[in-house]
Write a structure and sequence with these properties.
mainly beta, Porin, 15 strands, about 0% helix
Length: about 220
């Protein structure tokens, strides 16, 4: 994902890595970036999205220097679950010393046996390494009115080693709510990023999740 709304520790980063995305093609006013990764699980809001199966993920982002951006991101979902393909657009800007990101994301699922497609509005604000994000589902026959919010931070604890942590709350319109949290380490190398992530929820039916991942930008 892009900017402060990147799929961080609660989603694609919890799938195993903080997304890398500095390479690509650029002009004076716009930049195109690519990322790809393999992970031992795909976690969203502290829960597995791939039934604990390993996944392959990747994305393309286009960003203009004025703050507008477009992108797509995709992930396998495990045995007979098809793929998830996301499309998003937004606007990122700075004001009053804070970083803001506003946008819309549409989730498309290739398998009819998985969940229905849906779309979210999102807003994020960041200050230094810390950020807060909220998402609100605006169209889906079952989940319209769902919201998800989290706070977190990304810190460099040693040269080329990053620490990320998040704490959040999920409130789907058609089910029980839960709290979730995660902690991850990412080692950056010239050949890509290697990550280790722990994620859990306050749902007694959920087991703690440990994810290993490798991601690369080009």
């Amino acid at each position: 994902m892009h900017s402060t709304f990147k799929k961080t520790l609660v989603s694609s980063a919890v799938t195993g890595a903080l997304l890398v995305g500095t390479a690509g093609f650029s002009t004076a006013k716009a930049e195109l970036e690519f990322n790809v990764g393999v992970f031992t699980d795909y976690i969203l809001y502290g829960k597995t999205e791939s039934e604990n199966n390993a996944v392959v993920q990747g994305g393309i982002d286009w960003a203009h220097e004025d703050g507008f951006y477009l992108g797509t991101w995709a992930s396998t979902l495990g045995d007979n679950l098809g793929q998830e393909v996301d499309f998003y657009a937004g606007y990122a800007f700075e004001a009053g010393g804070l970083d803001f990101d506003l946008g819309y994301i549409y989730y498309y699922y290739t398998s009819d046996d998985y969940i229905d497609d849906f779309g979210d509005l999102y807003a994020s604000v960041g200050f230094g390494p810390a950020y807060a994000t909220v998402k609100y589902t605006i169209h889906d026959s079952d989940d319209r009115g769902s919201y998800y919010t989290w706070i977190g931070g990304d810190f460099e604890v040693m040269p080329s080693i990053g620490l990320g942590a998040e704490l959040g709350y999920a409130s789907p319109d058609d089910g029980d709510s839960w709290a979730f949290w995660s902690l991850g380490l990412t080692k950056s190398t010239d050949m890509g990023d290697i990550s280790f992530t722990y994620a859990h929820t306050d749902d007694s039916d959920d087991d703690p999740l440990f994810v290993v991942g490798y991601s690369l930008s080009f």
